[in-house]
Specification:
Distance between the termini: 47 Å
Number of helices: 13
Shape: elongated
Strand content: 15-25%
Strand order of the largest sheet: 3-2-1-5
């Protein structure tokens, strides 16, 4: 019998199984939805359904670099234990390869997984049944330069290009690309450590700047000094704020006597041409995901009572 796209979608919504598996299940059961669900359960494919509601805030950040481009991804699992699983690590590494080609989260999610007819999303859903935890592809981004380099850095790597914190830094230059990449990697390490809010002052959220300015103004007025002095006090405190949160204004971690901006100027001598940091990306695993707080002692007590 003919299986409609609407039937396949309904079964996917019910079970969380991959599209091709849902189509096969409906074909095997002559379109009987309930029987198709049972068929998937019997095959172990519908395990994802029971796990889909669980918070996946662990996992790995993965990076992949090409020529003058690099990509970064986050794929989540429920536990750190799974993040050390070879099969899961292979998935993250392959998703990073897809991200190098497609870039954005949506494009990567819908792209074909390497060596498969299934999409990245479908492949990860299928892996839930075999790995045994809720998994999810959360995000990806890519940086590219016309000339220069894009460097990658993984902090506390668990395998090549895989870890809990990843950074990309792009440098545009007509100079030595290898030396530009080496400096960009140092900046990536700096970004990992300091987590700046923006690349430069102009890129800061205007609302955040106004909020800080209002706080500094109120603090300065409490001193009782005249308005012209208060204005200078606020300007000084804003400069200090920029030094704390703006990448180019921050003291360079590898040489705190220089700002990142001045360290770049020094690096230009080695690179052999003017250079500019054009962008950076920093992915920290699980940031922004609301994790469930559980009372372990209460869970054990409840289990004993059952």
């Amino acid at each position: 019998m003919s299986i409609s796209a609407a039937q396949v979608k309904e079964l996917r919504d019910l079970t969380g199984a991959g599209m091709m598996d849902c189509k096969a299940a409906l074909a095997e059961t002559n379109g009987d939805m309930e029987a198709a669900v049972d068929w998937l359960r019997a095959k172990g494919i519908a395990k994802a359904d029971k796990k889909a509601g669980r918070v996946a805030a662990e996992g790995l950040i993965g990076v992949e670099a090409g020529v003058r481009e690099a990509a970064i991804v986050e794929v989540n699992s429920e536990t750190d234990f799974v993040a050390r699983n070879d099969a899961f690590q292979a998935i993250v590494a392959n998703v990073a390869k897809v991200a190098l080609a497609y870039g954005s989260t949506e494009a990567v999610a819908n792209a074909k997984y390497p060596g498969s007819d299934k999409t990245v999303t479908e492949t990860i859903k299928d892996a839930v049944g075999t790995i045994g935890e809720n998994l999810g592809f959360r995000r990806s981004e890519k940086l590219t330069v016309a000339q220069g380099a894009v460097a990658t850095y993984i902090h506390n790597a668990v395998a090549d290009n895989l870890g809990k914190l990843g950074v990309l830094v792009a440098i545009e230059t007509a100079g030595d690309a290898h030396k530009a990449s080496a400096f960009a990697r140092q900046v990536a390490m700096h970004v990992a450590a300091t987590n700046p809010l923006s690349l430069d002052v102009d890129a800061l959220d205007p609302a955040a700047v106004e909020r800080e300015k209002a706080i500094f103004s109120e603090q300065a007025r409490q001193s009782g000094k005249p308005e012209n002095i208060i204005e200078k006090m606020v300007e000084g405190r804003l400069r200090k704020f920029y030094e704390e949160v703006v990448l180019l204004k921050q003291a360079f971690v590898l040489n705190p006597d220089l700002t990142v901006e001045k360290a770049l100027k020094e690096a230009e001598k080695d690179i052999g041409a003017p250079a500019k940091i054009t962008a950076y990306l920093r992915f920290a695993l699980g940031e922004g995901i609301e994790k469930e707080e559980t009372d372990f002692a209460a869970e054990v007590a409840a289990a004993v009572k059952k």
